[in-house]
């Protein structure tokens, strides 16, 4: 162990506290900005509080706010488990053991898929449109999103003067807020709602509804008596001075009836005159107006839709509308800042940093990759952190394929939770980026799936514990869906367990461990009951399964024991063992898990030097050699079963596989490759992959990941990869600057996290580490690795290590 006397005596790092950077340059570094309004959805700017989402377009003649609420999905509580599956299972296993892959696929399709074979889709609340009166050609237009404050701003000048708008979605007050200002009483607009469902405008029984908003009593609302259920189609009605109420039902889908009711209340406050007619509010003669939007559904949980959305939105609006705009804004900024301000990153500044964001993304080299722009790389990390805060908060739903933002009712892949990579990738950056609190919705979803998946395990496999396959939805459906080629994969729940275990490993939160252990135990029991012996004696394997979502050379994807399954189950068993022993529970069960783990078939290297995707050496003959998934490299990242320190032969094989697959895949596929090259310590290859990800082929003008179409996992996976280049923690070590590219010669990061409940600040110049600060538990021993050297250091009694300059020579 390195003696700590000298280290403890060195000066504290000259690093600003997280979130305290006050210069204009620092503020601009966390800003997306543009010189024109959004012409399409992928140019609009996202806002969210975890539950409510809004896309702001910044139009001059018409402002569009496209809205989402995270529980507005199609359908109703349902159970898709197929009781025929348990009889079909042994037949399918036998066919796979005999190498009859096509027949096995037919057997799965006929007898083991869920009913219905599709899950429900996420959907939009529709659009709030503000059509401006006397719109004129603007000059000096700029719109922006400040990530640190989570506020969009639009500012331009016309003959009427300077027009300004600010928008945010408040977590403390649970409303969407837009503030509009135009000088000299020239502000006027018509506000209406446009949705994907047939709309009926209900005539107001509030005579005239012409009000001087400056003097309107805030509680003088129209009371709407409801007769039974809300109408199947959406309805708009006046709901008091300056307010409208939108109500309706969700969509039926795939034979599952509509089961959710939703409500949205929109209220305008400020000066000027307001009238209601034909479902629209018209404001005239104002200088300032504030638009407040509250929305809710009747969703209580995956089995209960008895909530009262109208009562919810009225209660939320009553509280929010009683507060001045400045109070709403201040509370929002303080709450958001408490999360966003936990980490800062500076990778340097290039020539492109002064340009608008869309120009920076579109500036490419001859290969079509984004040119070196270190500040944009740092912005990519901060944008992902912002998106996670905005789409996943304690008490909300987890971030789905689109996070929380989607403008249709049947989005690509339903906007669901695809749990054979995409949902897990959404949470890869959470803990390293200081946002472990945002993982809570994922843990809650896993707890739900442990209940619905227990029915699936019993009904379809005759097994204990619980299982879920490659997708789930708001209703926590756990059966295999879509088609046998994609859906017959039993490790979705296990991978989710491993993802939440990572959250525990970073936080070392005993409360998380106590919640997680029963879930992991149930997932492990399922595999104890369903693993089978490989006929060739190579160990225990899953059957039937697949390597998501790749076909092997024999006209199918179905196999027994693909590499990814063995790796995921190996991690699941190891994590369950550690958790059970820490909690002192289930000794006999843990012995069985330990014995089964030892018998899992090991990873294999093929004749081409590649990391085998299947038990058989089929990779060279697979029909898609450049497949978007790199499932069998799970062992390298996000796991660390295969790593440069302990298993160099497997890492060499992983490199060969990545070279065979190519660098540019889907957005999330490219992001996974970035993480893998970073984990293997290849800085320049990782950086070249990053340039492909952040360029216009894989990044939209608003910085959303271009799958294409938009999927948010690429944003999250890309941010995780950048952080992997700067700091890694696996195998009991913390690796400092393990994959630092030449394009980032100097920089600093504060508040990045490592496993073991460690918070780390570090800085470097000309590629050399210059300062380091570690905060953790008092007297905790940390093993550091840097440039091939390893040193053990001990935190002081206050749980801190601070060091700069000469004291770092031990690591240089």
From TrEMBL:
GO terms for biological process: carbohydrate metabolic process. Keywords: Hydrolase. Residues 325-726 form the Glycosyl hydrolase family 95 catalytic domain. GO terms for molecular function: alpha-L-fucosidase activity. Pfam families: Glyco_hyd_65N_2, Glyco_hydro_95_C, Glyco_hydro_95_cat. SUPFAM superfamilies: Six-hairpin glycosidases. Residues 728-790 form the Alpha fucosidase A-like C-terminal domain. Residues 32-301 form the Glycosyl hydrolase family 95 N-terminal domain. PANTHER family: ALPHA-L-FUCOSIDASE 2. This is Glycoside hydrolase family 95 protein. It comes from Pseudoduganella lutea.
């Amino acid at each position: 162990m390195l003696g700590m006397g000298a280290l403890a005596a060195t000066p504290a790092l000259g690093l600003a506290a997280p979130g305290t950077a006050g210069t204009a340059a620092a503020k601009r570094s966390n800003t997306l900005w543009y010189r024109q309004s959004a012409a399409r959805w992928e140019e609009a700017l996202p806002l969210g509080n975890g539950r409510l989402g809004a896309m702001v377009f910044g139009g001059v003649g018409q402002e569009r706010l496209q809205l989402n609420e995270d529980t507005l999905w199609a359908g109703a509580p349902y159970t898709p488990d197929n009781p025929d599956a348990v009889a079909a299972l042994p037949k399918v296993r036998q066919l796979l053991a005999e190498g009859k892959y096509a027949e096995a696929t037919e057997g799965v399709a006929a007898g083991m898929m869920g009913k219905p074979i599709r899950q429900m889709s996420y959907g939009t609340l529709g659009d709030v449109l503000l059509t401006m009166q006397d719109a004129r050609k603007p000059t000096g237009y700029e719109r922006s999103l400040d990530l640190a404050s989570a506020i969009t701003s639009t500012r331009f000048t016309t003959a009427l003067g300077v027009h300004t708008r600010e928008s945010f979605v408040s977590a403390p007050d649970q409303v969407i807020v837009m503030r509009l200002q135009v000088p000299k009483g020239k502000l006027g607009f018509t506000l209406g709602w446009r949705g994907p469902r047939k709309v009926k405008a209900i005539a107001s029984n509030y005579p005239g509804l012409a009000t001087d908003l400056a003097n309107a009593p805030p509680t003088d609302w129209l009371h709407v008596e409801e007769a039974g259920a809300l109408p199947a189609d959406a309805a708009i009605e006046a709901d008091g001075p300056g307010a409208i109420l939108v109500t309706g039902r969700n969509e039926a889908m795939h034979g599952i009836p509509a089961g959710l009711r939703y409500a949205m209340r929109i209220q305008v406050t400020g000066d000027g005159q307001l009238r209601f007619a034909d479902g629209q509010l018209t404001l005239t003669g104002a200088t300032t107006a504030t638009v407040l939007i509250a929305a809710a559904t009747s969703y209580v949980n995956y089995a209960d839709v008895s909530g009262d959305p109208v009562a919810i939105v009225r209660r939320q609006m009553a509280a929010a509308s009683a507060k001045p705009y400045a109070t709403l804004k201040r509370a929002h900024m303080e709450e958001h800042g408490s999360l966003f301000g936990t980490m800062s990153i500076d990778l340097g500044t290039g020539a492109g940093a002064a340009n608008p964001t869309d120009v920076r993304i579109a500036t490419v080299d001859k290969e079509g990759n984004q040119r070196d722009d270190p500040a944009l790389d740092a912005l990519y990390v901060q944008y992902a952190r912002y998106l996670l805060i905005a789409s996943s908060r304690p008490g909300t739903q987890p971030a789905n394929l689109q996070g929380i933002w989607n403008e249709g009712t049947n989005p690509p892949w339903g906007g669901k939770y695809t749990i054979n990579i995409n949902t897990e990738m959404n949470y890869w950056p959470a803990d390293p980026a200081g946002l472990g609190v945002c993982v809570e919705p994922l843990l809650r979803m896993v707890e739900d799936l442990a209940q619905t998946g227990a029915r699936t395990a019993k009904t379809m496999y005759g097994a204990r514990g619980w299982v879920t396959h490659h997708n789930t939805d708001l209703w926590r459906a756990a059966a295999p869906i879509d088609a046998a080629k994609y859906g017959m994969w039993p490790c979705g729940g296990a991978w989710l367990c491993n993802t939440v275990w990572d959250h525990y490993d970073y936080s070392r939160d005993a409360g998380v461990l106590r919640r997680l252990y029963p879930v992991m135990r149930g997932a492990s029991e399922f595999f104890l009951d369903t693993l089978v012996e490989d006929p060739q004696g190579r160990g225990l394997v899953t059957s039937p399964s697949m390597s998501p979502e790749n076909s092997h050379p024999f006209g199918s994807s179905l196999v027994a024991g693909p590499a990814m399954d063995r790796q995921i189950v190996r991690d699941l068993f190891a994590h369950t063992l550690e958790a059970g022993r820490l909690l002192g529970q289930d000794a006999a069960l843990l012995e069985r898990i330990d014995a089964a783990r030892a018998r899992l078939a090991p990873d294999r290297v093929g004749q081409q030097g590649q990391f085998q995707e299947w038990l058989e050496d089929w990779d060279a003959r697979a029909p898609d050699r450049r497949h978007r998934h790199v499932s069998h490299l799970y062992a390298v990242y996000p796991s660390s079963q295969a790593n440069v320190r302990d298993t160099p032969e497997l890492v060499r094989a992983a490199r060969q596989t990545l070279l065979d697959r190519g660098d540019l895949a889907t957005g999330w596929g490219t992001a996974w490759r970035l993480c893998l090259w970073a984990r293997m310590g290849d800085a320049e290859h990782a950086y070249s992959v990053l340039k492909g990800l952040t360029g216009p082929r894989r990044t939209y003008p608003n910085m959303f990941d271009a799958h294409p179409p938009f999927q948010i996992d690429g944003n999250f996976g890309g941010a995780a990869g950048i952080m992997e280049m700067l700091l890694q923690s696996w195998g009991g070590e913390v690796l400092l600057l393990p994959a630092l590219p030449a394009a980032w010669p100097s920089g600093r990061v504060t508040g990045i996290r490592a496993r073991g409940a460690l918070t780390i600040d570090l800085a470097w110049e000309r590629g050399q580490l210059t300062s380091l600060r570690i905060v953790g538990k008092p007297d905790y021993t940390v093993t550091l690795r840097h440039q091939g050297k390893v040193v053990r250091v001990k935190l002081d009694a206050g749980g801190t290590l601070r060091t700069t300059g000469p004291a770092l020579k031990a690591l240089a």
